[in-house]
Amino acid sequence: MHCALGLNRRRIGKTRLPGSPMQAAFIERLNRSYREALVDVYVFKTLEEVREQTEVWIADYNEVLPYDSLGDLTPVGYRGLHHPDISSEEWH
Prior knowledge:
Blueprint: H1 9-15, H2 21-39, H3 47-63, H4 75-82
């Protein structure tokens, strides 16, 4: 099925799942943070380098950097304080 612009709706539906505008904003914020911290800064030679730097960035993003929106806590600290019943293994 095609929409008025001639785009395939089935293809669009697979690239972005429907969600609330707030959900889209969170995803865009995460994408921007990742891009500014890694993609715009490094010139990677291998996919393995991208994976290694991404793992370091994810650890910093979740365990080191505090966020105003979380009361100056890290996501891991916030989870431990407000949702201690959720283990970190459930997040992976």
